[in-house]
Amino acid sequence: MEDVRICPEHGFYRGESCDTCGYVGEVVIPKDRVERLGKFISGVLRHFPDKFGLEMDENGWVDFERLLRIVSRRYRWANRWVVKALIYSDRKGRYELKDDRIRARYGHSVPVELNDMPEAEEDLLYYGTSEEESVRLLELGIKPVNQTFVHLSTTLEKSEEVARLRTDEPIILEVDARKARDDGIRLIKVNEHIVLAKEIPPEYILREIRL
């Protein structure tokens, strides 16, 4: 985890210096607070909005002012400036803030549709898993576990990176995204690296890639 700092020209960033110009900015959120605040906001937006009386629409949007009040009751130091710093500096594109609304882009366990997100245009997508699990997935297809959507990667490299968080010997499943899309399976592009689907039936898995 890294500190969140601010560059006067390029805004909030994480790490020692601005990725764009190298400026060493003032710390806005120290790294220990980045971790605590990030886990809390992600939890509220992905998993338990009802616990805090936060109304979420089918696309995952909630009222930003209401979220701020919830966050500030938990962390008195987390004002509007701090919360926006966390959101805008996030390299993984976890959040989207638009006008007076905010949402998590992916990772939901609560039911959402995300109908206002674009469809992915990639011909191939990738899913990283273990060798043991790949046998089951090739037979039954890829289905979400503890989440609303399956998370697919846009590149082989990114899928390997994700898989290595769970196993030292990842297997990558290559998915025929073009055929799946042509057959009516909705593939949601949430950022440069992640595409979501309700599920991927086995007929769209082209092959295993052993690394």
UniProtKB/TrEMBL annotation:
Keywords (alphabetical) are: NAD, Transferase
Entry-linked InterPro entries: Ptrans_KptA/Tpt1 (IPR002745), RNA_2'-PTrans_C (IPR042081), RNA_2'-PTrans_KptA (IPR022928), RNA_2'-PTrans_N (IPR042080)
- What Gene Ontology terms describe what this protein does at the molecular function level? NAD+ poly-ADP-ribosyltransferase activity; tRNA 2'-phosphotransferase activity
Q: Which SUPFAM superfamilies match?
A: ADP-ribosylation (SSF56399)
What Pfam families does this protein's entry cite? Answer: PTS_2-RNA
Biological process (GO), any one: tRNA splicing, via endonucleolytic cleavage and ligation
User: Enzyme class, one word?
Assistant: transferase
What EC numbers are recorded for this enzyme?
Answer: 2.7.1.-
Q: Does the keyword Protein transport apply?
A: no
Query: What HAMAP family does this protein's entry cite?
Result: KptA
The UniProt family comment states:
Belongs to the KptA/TPT1 family.
Q: What is the role of the protein in this entry?
A: Removes the 2'-phosphate from RNA via an intermediate in which the phosphate is ADP-ribosylated by NAD followed by a presumed transesterification to release the RNA and generate ADP-ribose 1''-2''-cyclic phosphate (APPR>P). May function as an ADP-ribosylase.
The identity of this protein, by name, is Probable RNA 2'-phosphotransferase
